## 1
Amino acid sequence: MLLTWLTLGLAVPSVLAQKPGSFVVVGDTLVSAMMMFVGSSDKVYILDKVEGNAHQINGHSLYASVWDIASRTATPLDVQTNAFCAAGMHLPNASFALFGGNSAVGPGGDNSAPGSTTAFDPTYQVYDGRRAIRIFTPCEGDVNSSPCSHYDSANGTQMAKSRWYPAAEPLANGTVVLIGGFVAGGYINRNTPNTDPTYEGGAAEPTYEFFPPGSQPPQIMNFMVKTSGLNSYALTYLMPSGKMFVQANYSTILWDYDTNVETPLPDMPGQIIRVYPASGANAMLPLTPANNYTPTIIFCGGQFMEDDWWGNYSYPAVDTWNVPASQACHRITPEPMDGSAPAYVQDDNLPIRRTMGQLIALPDGTLLVINGASNGTAGYAQRTGTTTTFGGMPFGESLATGAVGQPAIYNPNAPAGSRWSTAGLSSSNIARLYHSSALLLPDGSVMIAGSNPNVDVNVTTVYPTTYTAEYFYPPYFSAKTRPSPQNIPQTLSYGGNFFDITVPSSSYTGNANDAAGNTTVWLIRQGFTTHAMNMGQRIMQLNNTFTVRNDGTIILHTAQLPPSPNLFQPGPAFLFVTIGGIPSNGTYVLVGNGQVGTQPTAPASVLPPSVRSTNGSSKGTGKNSATLAHVGIGSTLRLLLAAAMTLALS
């Protein structure tokens, strides 16, 4: 059983605001960041596939590290199983779980070395990770000492099925559903000719299962059969009804995972592929009181190729780097409030076409697209159906080229035709292609790391294995003063009594009444990032009213989450207070009761009316500088949580 826990506050000032729109190189991650998640207010966990990294731990190459956000340094972390192309998700108690991966491999990414098998490789000292379940209990101290913990065992807790490139989506009760994946394979999930779309001769896994597991064994999901080939890392979003939006290949469904009933939705326009390896950017738009917390999902970029061009497990049939990526964006509201039929709607095109772009929710209600390439697809190979020798491959093993270094910002509330902007945004000169990643940090900056379109470490090729991390600073870093909210609770509930957040006059500028009327409270979960996705990412605006005191202090009367865990599943998140588009630093909070199971709910919060200051001269003084604050978890509770997790998995 997972332990209920609370967070304790701890504020630590750090660096001042950086130049808005800029990239800053911040250090060496020790491993190439194929996967990342924010584990606490000061730590990012980074995982790589098993390969010949120069950094060593316990007599073998390093495959994981933990990044300290403030000091910009990485600490080695030992893992036992191959997490190559695993899925990951938060748990209700704020631990993170990684599911599946690849078999054991040795140098060159295969089992050709003496003694190497798919079960264990003696050179890299790694075990088969295809059924592995790894649990990381984040902390704010030494990651290799108590109360920090991570669990990874070749013989311990495992999934029922082998899964490489599976989808993962959290449910309202904190359970995680795991969908599909490869058993063995490579580029796309099919053979040619495709005579066995269900199992591909044992190379495909068309079932779904749950973690923690229930009494039901894995069941075949017909959608995984229908979308055979282009269904790796299916794109999943839990809906308000409790059904799940699922997109793969160019097909879309609403799925009732309790009954395994699929309801078809319209196909992706133009048959553009957004799942891996086309890897289009995708995200749920902000859930707000204005849209009645109705989910809309946006897809941008990706790739269209004729079906036979995609090839098979081995490699694509064509030279993908010659095929331009898509520039198109589409929105869909899977469960419209007005009862209309769901439909994909053309949105503004990306400023530049992009595959492997990634959408990051920002605490001003916009989305950032970053990373990727203008031509080709994700993945790597040593040949294609057209270029039949490795020597003829112009970009090494990379199947993409034309790195897109400039990000863009999408405003979902802007009029059509003006939603994308690159104004004031600089470009990175580091190519971020296959196996790159990005996520929002608690201070509102974005960490970018990784890129490795190579079967094993290669630091001399056109697109090398990359260990350098960058921070990107969105335009709101132009502010000299940022909100400094106080009295933010450590846990949030689904419905129930509102709570008050205090914003001192020293942490904003301008007329107090105007500032209060232009304030939003955002709850953001960054998700688990890999392969141009942020699994589990959500952004929700909490409803609020306000009272403005005559001294300029603003009291935000803030609602709890709506009384439906389907909208924002239980687990960790960061709360931001944004005034006039300038966000505070995020405060670490726990949503729900910290346990797997039915979450307690209460009626929606009833807010008092807003009260403006009667002093016309009330204003913010802006005396506080824009600093980074960390909010942490008490060490005693971390010890209890680590002990409970160890018992649960033993």
## 2
Amino acid sequence: MLHAAILKMLVLDGESVYTLTSHPILLLIARIILVNSRHKLASLQTVFWWTLRCVNIHQQLLEERSPELFSLAQTCIKQGTEAETLFTGSESWHLAVQFHLECAYTFLYYYEYKKAKQCFSMAKDITKLQINLTGALGKRTRFQEKYVAQLILDVQRTDEFLLPHSELSPSPTPLENLTMNYDLNDDTLLNEIKLADADQYRVPDLCAEELAVILGICIDLQKNNPVHKLTEEELLAFTSCLLSQPKFWAIQTSALFLRTKIEKGSTRRMERAMKQTQALADQFEDVNTSVSERMKIFYCCQVPPHWAIQRQLASLLFELGCISSALQIFEELEMWKDAVICYEKAGQHGKAEEILRRELEKKETPGLYCLLGDVLKDHQYYDKAWELSRHRSARAQRSKGLLHLRNREFRECVECFERSVQINPMQLGVWFSLGCAYIALEGYEGAAKAFQRCVTLEPDNAEAWNNLSTAYIRLKQKIKAFRTLQEALKCNYEHWQIWENYLLTSTDVGEFSEAIKAYHRLMDLREKYKDTQVLAILVRAVADGMADRAGEVASGLKGKLQELFGRVTSQVTNDGEIWRLYARLYGNGQNDSGEDIEKSLQYLTKAHKCEIQSSDWEKDVSSFKEVVKGAIEIAHVAIKCSKNKSNHQEALQILSSARLNLRGLSSKAKKLFVDVTSNEVHSEIADEVTTMDNMIAELQELSNQLRDQC
């Protein structure tokens, strides 16, 4: 009863504490002293720092991020940055490094990635370390004969700089008291990269703070990059460097835990990942390593809790198909959500319900009712959880809202999500789902607000930026949409839908240069991509000298647009409209430049060929008239082009080609569109036939004149 009461007192922002937390009363006492009675400890220089540590530990125990804890953490960090006397002087450098690292991890957890990066950089600058990913010749497999480039981490001290007062840094823990780093034992892969020149990249002997800085930069890299093979290789380079100097329990545990998470996806490394995770889980029972050794540099490393490692072990077992072993661990950890997922994936839906009802008989909690609602997809259990929590469970409203969303009941879904974020505004997923629900209801102002909160919480969420731009477009705020799409592309450069939105918005707001750039990128991402409407707008802007958003005349982009059309027509060769636009870009034969006139003729001819290759144009009068119009235009440009030719033979060929084209169309018109009774061409196409015949005569006359000159 006391344990349950203490856990209840540690609930914040509707988020409950992990039920199997050991000795939660110690955290409660720490909170009473460092948070509730902070004003009485003003004379204690480091009270802000210990409060920050208390906040970080408390947050690790909660299911979701707590705005109250984040606000308190920000206050502590602000006080720390103002406490100059504590971190000045050569003997305080290690304190400064530790404080900046702890601040960085706090910011990282609460989605403040830029601030976190700044803190990691400040810590690195104090240590004067140069940390770079680089290539070095080496061997990775047992049978490799030649040395090839391998990715490694190069760590050097600036100008052989030695940190002062090194005796103030924690002393290393004996190797036998550290978690064992298992070898790979693979028949092909080497345990570690064998470098051709190992001495060149030898890592200097690093102290606790320096190792913690390298780990911090590694975690920052992981958080700021997508899950990708290249990212994994970069992270493995960091973990290899850290594990090459096993000195501190906290750093060793964090580095090994990170490595197992990366290696679990590799068939050759899966066995080591499994053994290593088991060893990490077992080490907490090891009494040989004292608490004082484990606490060295502990707060600077964000060491995973015991149950997080056990959960990772259970997840690995589940992925390997050992469902009963995974279930046993999840049930021992009282992680009912994971246990339910196991049962659901194993197809034992009844067992999932049974286990939840069994636990509810022991004790009713909002969390268990929410899980039962998830399994049975029934709103009544979420309502029960909501009432049981006295309207303080963000999880209950979140789950209820998701069920409404799944059933496409968007209005009810919005109401639930709004209640959930009112209790805990730091739920990134809920804000995103709320925005999507608002878009479905065409409530674009609500959607814009929701996605704005998303990108505030997680600035590199490309999907949220893209959806925010959609909301702004619907609200007719196109400049804002353009800017948000620029942010989206910074987060995800490979997403073709975002690039397409960016292309359309750029064109819409008059950012013609950006539109050309976006079109090029779409062609990189999608084979034979085309958008004729956008190309038409860009050609009109350049040809008519329209002003872009900055007031600059778009004619200056003619060269870039010609380059784009060259690329488009090399991939899309059968679109007459695109060829016609290309010709217009060169002036449609109306320029004085002989080269431009020749290119216009070339592209108009290709457009005409594409049009006559399409089906049914001969049967429809309006389509036929369009083709005739194109042929007459070609004839006019051909006459102009022939006059610029010094070679009479070439000029004759151009005129003959245009004349033959018109003659063929005229003959076709007289066959297809003739009145049977009067034997005359239909009145609706008679003018075009007359124009063609006149043009044929003119071309014939010009050809005769040229022949006379030959």
## 3
Amino acid sequence: MSMQDITSKTSQLSVSEHVVYVNETTGSDATGHGTVDAPFATALAAVTLIGNMPEEKQEAFKVMVQKTGEEAYAEITASALKKARKAHKDAANKARRVAEQAEKQQAQGEAKRMEEQRRLEESLKVELTEDASLPAAKKIRIQDAEAHRGQRVKVFGWVHRQRVQGRDMMFVVVRDGTGFLQCVLTDRLCHTRDALALTAETTVCVYGVISAVPEGKSAPGGHELAADYWEVVGRAPGGDDAISNRVSEGADPSILLQQRHLVIRGEKAASVLKVRARVMRAFRAHFDAAGYFEVTPPCMVQTQVEGGSTLFEFDYYGEPAYLTQSSQLYLETCLPSMGAVYTLAESYRAEKSHTRRHLSEYTHCEAEIPFISFEDLLDGIEHMVKDVVARVWAEPETRAMIKQLNPEFVPPTEPFVRMRYEDAIVWLNEHEVHHEDGTPYVFGEDIPEAPERAMTDAIGKPILLTHFPGPIKAFYMPATKEDPRVTESVDLLMPGVGEIVGGSMRIWDHDELVAAYAREGLDTAPYYWYLDQRKYGSCPHGGFGLGVERFLAWLLNRFSVRECCLYPRFVDRCQP
């Protein structure tokens, strides 16, 4: 209760009665005044009011209490008054201590501010110049630091983090995209205005000699740069606009997506993107070693591959056109001239889905191979996944990032499980994985994401799920000779993610393909060039498409594919 409150409440008491009223039922400590018309709710409030009056007036007042269930006021009992006075005294002592602490902190804060101001004023007098007597510094990237130990170098980069030790030493960790380097600034190097105002993400150039850290100490790469000169290249803001206030690991996902350009500066996000680059390189190396040629198909098309409901349509000089759902059809046209081909390109699906494994734009690794059987196709998909993982796992730096992001990861070595669609239906029902309404799955139904993942996670191994019914697959997938109900089709399912590859043999008979168009109600005119592949020397062939973001989500144990691309695009998200 403030002195202003006490003065206000005291003025409303009956001076002639010298009574403070407490009504445990109708009173209020917040709005009451201690009068019979506006009583307090507790004896503590009454004692507090009296206790803050001048001492000569306190003895004249008494406390009248109407307890709950009683009809009249009665003078407070001695024990209740004693208890209330003790509580008041304790509260007063606590308030005094809090006030003293606040005053002390204010004084310390003022002293600190004065000291900082003094240091800032002194820093204006400190000017750094490079010592011309030292050997010329060689510009290096941080990834080359170990090879330049014992030499004087200069390194450009961003301030990743910093730690001040006393008045004459600073540890500044700098990153340049190739690695991290701890720089040690001492004496005058710490006294400049730039040093005192240094903020995260400021770009700097640091000169000095690189050496191994002393035994028992640690630093990125096992070495540090003892600086002899440094300068700011570009300042980053501090205060409310500091990067730590713009993005933080526990922030709302929508904020992190909106600030994605800053999020990718973090170690985890940057590591994901670096592994992504190495994985893309490994896919190319795999296909190159296998004799495939890379092609670059168009992304603006006038045909569909995966159904019209997921097409992004736009006006193409007065004609309807679409962003490609898949480059498969174009890859097939390359088989007669180039043999086995592949592409790493973007595909687009206008799926209004908010699941953690869907994107509207994603990187599609697709391949088409002539003169193969369905078993060849399955073997090729399995070998590709194992080989790409082996390639990135063999690179020490990439392997370290994978282990940091996914410590439990073990490269697959055992043969992938091969399971037919109809066996998956049996598995789901035997393990009581049913529809939401409790009904079992039946042959012919598309298996949704949730039960598919439940089965994959329970089995705990990669699954090549094959022989899907024709009505739930794309028009170009051929029926098997043994069972015309099902197609030579496959999905590769990975634990923790689900489907990462979809593939099949392709219908290679001209008349059969025309019949498939008719079943789908598709006009064959826009596909004339695709039908010509069956007209001018057709052959058995097959192919597949792999979602690179899903592959990375599995490899790096990321919760969502949105973490596995630079700037994710999905429903309601087309920025930054």
## 4
Amino acid sequence: MASGPNMMAPVCLVENNIGQLSVNQEALEILDKISQPVVVVAIVGLYRTGKSYLMNRLSGQNHGFPLGSMVQSETKGIWMWCVPHPSKPNHTLVLLDTKGLGDVEKGNPKIDSWIFALAVLLCSSFVYNSMSTIDHQALEQLHYVTKLTELIRAKSSPIPEGIHDSTEFVSFFPDFIWTVRDFTLELKLNGLRITEDEYLENALKLIPGKKPKAQTSNLPRECIRHFFPKRKCFVFDQPTSDKKLLANIEKVTETQLDQKFQEQTKNFCSYIFTQARPKTLREGISITGKRLGTLVVTYVDAINSGAVPCLENAVTTLAQLENSAAMEKAAAHYSEQMAQRVRLPTDTLQELLDLHAACERQAIEIFMENSFKDENQEFQKKLVELLNDKKECFLLQNEEASAKYCQDKLDELSMVLTESITAGTSSVPGGHKFYLETKERVAQDYWQVPRKGVKANEVFQRFLELQAAIEKSILQSDKALTDGQKAIAVKRAKKQAAEKKQNLLIQQLQEQRQRMEAQERSVKENIAQLKEKLRREKENLIREQNMMLDHKLKLQDELLKDGFNKKSEDMNAEINYWKNIIDRTTNDVIPLLAEILEKIGSEIISILSTKLIDTIVKSMSSVFR
């Protein structure tokens, strides 16, 4: 796993350039190098409310994100700071600080809304920062949340009539944390002490009545309750009563700050470090820094084109890039492992095929771990073909290494035989017997050489075929032999040649059987790992769907208890929709899984068989040449 980033200061991630959002290339390059899962914390709120101070504390610094104590707010947009996560090993903490929201000087309500929506889409923990208290005014200032249904889509395809697309927001929206600064009230309700979380939940209770003012006031409350099932609240006292210190708070030491404020800040940071979850998309798709960069570009491109950022489209775009990278990573691992572990020539074909199977298994595991949403298993099928091609290259290299090694050994061992023929030693009476004895010693020495490899028989067969004409000439010129003895010798030589060819054919057939068994193992391995991956994905999907249903049921129950009977009844359509979705997902799992596995099995067999048949034909034709 790559080490965490080492950013000395934040950089602008998304910038507003005269009403047009753009992604900073420097920030993308930083994200591209982060292969670790990321915990993304975004903070949003009106400018000059102390957002940047909290983010600097999360980074472990007093300064970094520009603070709002200057006359004019900083560049509007989203600023990013990536630091190693202080409590989650092999994770990166990505801090996103929004700038300029509600700035009357640089104000652009539409851009503000887009920045708010982007912060929601990109983070796993969404911090909303406000001043003084959570009241009607504070909720009015959070009007951006009411625009989310217009600014974000979960699906690109149509949904059933009567069901809002926002019903799925809860499946990918972040946890919601409200931080209240310069809080002066007592945490009490009806004379009883309450927690910060209870304070927030009480503030989010709907106001009874059908008047337009009540409906308007309830809209942000309803959106927060519907879209963010996990909510948390922190209140902060004023850091110090000294205005001069407040104006330069990034230079103030902790001892100069109010003791209670220090404790509140530590509690907030501790919660983020221990409870803020890694960023995921629907069905548990893990987000790394590199993937986060892709999401930023995809969302901003959609906004600039006049479209609404759509999670489903973003996932599709991300899947194409990530699955291609997963395939390349798996193939590279296979090549690396094979190159490290193989010693050519291998003693047998099976030795190389067993090594291939082990490396292939690891490669498929890597692909399965790093891929997602592989529609029709297109990238898995490409990986199958790619690994098969690489396997064939290793097989060819093995054959070439074996052939060269065997030929070199045979040339060395047969040198005595060659020299005796050149010197005419075999041309005298009794020369044929001397020739056969010398050739037999060459054969014995050759077969004692270890690890000759898969071409040992074929190379020796070619050697015998080359010697056949020489042997025939020596036999015919040997005056020590009668014609009858010569005829017997010829017959014996033909029989031995036929036996050798038969042995070579048997070896070839055995190797083809081993290749077919290797193909069968490859198909089974691919199907087994895909089956396990699909099983996990279905479990995640059903768990996610049940979570959404539970959230809807909880909301309905709360509305009923608070006396909002009509709103409670209105949720029946959504609840029935999710019940039907869960039933279909649960009941269709087994037949759908069987169909997918049968299809991919047939397609993989087709991919491998075509090349295997070509290999068999070439191999067998070489025997009969």
